[in-house]
Amino acid sequence: MFGKFFTRLWGDTGFGWRLARIVAVLGACLLGYVMLFEDSFIYFPSKYPEGVWERQPPRAREGQIVAQVEDVQLTTADGVRLHGWYCTPRVGRAGGALEAVETRTTLLYLHGNAGNISHRYNFINELVGLPANVLIIDYRGYGKSEGRPTEEGLYMDARAAWDHLTGTRAIPAAQIVIFGKSLGGAVAIDLATKVEACALVVQSSFTSIADMAGEVLPFVPRFVIRTKMDSLSKIASVSYPKLFIHSQADEVIPYRLGQRLFDAARAPKQLYEVKGAPHNLTSDIGGAPYFAALRDFINSSCNAELR
């Protein structure tokens, strides 16, 4: 069988035709491989027990705000069980006691591609210092969550998190900020087209998976990519305030994709550039001015009173 195949492939025609046939066969095999294993090129989950999951009760200096972590279990519309953390701000008092910090703002944080929620603990500790409550979930296939990641699945995961906040915890939609980073930015934008939140924050995200594939796998035709995550076509339908955060030093998602996303959005919108920040160090490099910009945006957009 294979002998006949290669005989026909090489044939008696000229070398150019034989070479063209070989390239065509190899190209078809490569495209087939990409299509068959597409999800493995897009999602890079870390499953439990990878990560740091044992969190001791938080300690804080007097006046310091830290995150009190509560495990959360959610079930999506298609029956997948998800795990997350609901984090509330606590401030240190004299003698080591912790006191709850009142806040009317809750962030629904949709994290980036690699890792799981345990790898975002330090960032969550910074976010609660705004101060704000933070719900962070692991998508299906990540951390302690069941299933495997798909585009529609991630959208359902975000909706389950939203329903948990507005339903189970009875938090008014007008007090919730949807915050998505990188891959989570696409998930956040999709959710934002379906619900009326207070505001939307998109950090270091892209226009579509096809555009990202053009950066990483430029030889792959767009028509073979099933996953869309087409944020560019969705963002204009989000009417409430939007903050886009990106860095021209981002080595993973080009700044120009974030700029195009911002340009496609309608007002009210803001673009905040963090100078010299690699993809995974935006808040670290941004430092206090980064969190001040985030706080100012939430205050102005949600009638909040973050200090």
Summarize the structure.
The protein has 307 residues and is an alpha/beta fold. It has two domains: 2-36; 46-302, 3-Layer(aba) Sandwich (Rossmann fold).
Write up this protein.
The protein is built from ten helices and nine strands. It has 307 residues and is of the alpha/beta class. It has two domains: 2-36; 46-302, Alpha/Beta hydrolase fold, catalytic domain (Rossmann fold, 3-Layer(aba) Sandwich). Strands 1, 2, 3, 4, 5, 6, 7, 8 and 9 form a nine-stranded mixed beta sheet that branches. The longest helix has 22 residues, at 15-36. The protein is globular, with a radius of gyration of 23 Å. Mean pLDDT is 88; it is low at 23-37.
Number of domains: 2
Our count of helices gives 10
Q: What name is given to the CATH topology of the largest domain? A: Rossmann fold
Sheet/helix structural class: alpha/beta
User: From N to C, what is the helix and strand string?
Assistant: HHHEEEEHEHEHEHHEHEH
CATH class of the largest domain: Alpha Beta
Straight-line distance between termini: 74 Å
Mean pLDDT: 88
CATH superfamily membership of the largest domain: Alpha/Beta hydrolase fold, catalytic domain
Taken as a percent bin, the fraction of beta residues is: 15-25%
Please tell me the CATH architecture of the largest domain by its name: 3-Layer(aba) Sandwich
Which geometry do the CA atoms define?
globular
